[in-house]
Specification:
The chain contains 9 helices and no strands. The mean pLDDT is 86.
């Protein structure tokens, strides 16, 4: 590995740092975007039962909001149920936007890596070409310097593409996963809102 790094020249260090950063983002998102952590199973039924038994106290809603992203959305639906329709809708949309922002955290950075890595590889290729041209002189070429320039060009191009492909794949995967989570949250929030509309008129507070 050290021999490859030496053959690839100093531009490879930029790609190595980029790859480490990209790998860290992928691992972090894999752990953070787990379905059970974002959408706990049966949470909608539990919240509906909590409302039915009139246990939706501010303390209970605060605890629900900190339990998971879905819990935060459902807690806002319950908390805003007594508000006028336009204020209730605005409050739920605000929470949904914030949850969407948190779920999408680091995804722009991962997308940037997918774009920047090939450019860094191209930069390394240019450095290698400079080494190749520097190997020529009126007195003759330096085969060692020529070979080193070719190594720099090829290794950096290859590493740039090698980093960009998984970064792009995981970026698309996480983006799709977040969109699916948000869709399911919207459906469950709508279901809870409809339930509250039926439940509240029969329960004077």
């Amino acid at each position: 590995m050290l021999e490859i790094i030496h053959s690839a020249g100093w531009p490879i260090w930029l790609l190595l740092l980029t790859s480490v950063f990209g790998l860290a983002l992928i691992i972090e998102r894999l752990f953070s975007l787990r379905a059970r952590q974002i959408l706990p199973p049966n949470l909608l039924a539990q919240v509906s039962e909590m409302v039915r038994q009139r246990q939706d106290t501010p303390e209970a809603l605060s605890l629900l909001a900190t339990s998971s992203p879905l819990g935060r959305v459902l807690a806002e639906v319950v908390a805003a149920n007594s508000e006028p329709p336009h204020l209730r809708q605005a409050a739920i949309e605000d929470v949904g936007t914030d949850v969407s922002h948190r779920l999408s955290r680091y995804l722009p950075a991962l997308g940037t890596i997918a774009v920047v890595a090939p450019l860094l590889g191209l930069f390394g290729t240019v450095v290698g070409m400079i080494e190749i041209f520097a190997a020529y002189s009126p007195a003759g070429g330096d085969p060692a310097q020529l070979a080193h320039g070719i190594s720099i060009a090829l290794y950096n191009t290859g590493f740039g593409i090698l980093i960009a492909i998984p970064a792009l794949i995981f970026h698309r995967y996480f983006r799709s996963r977040v969109d699916d989570f948000l869709h399911q949250m919207e459906r469950q929030a709508s279901a809870l809102n409809r339930y509250l509309g039926k439940e509240r008129p029969h329960e004077p507070r």
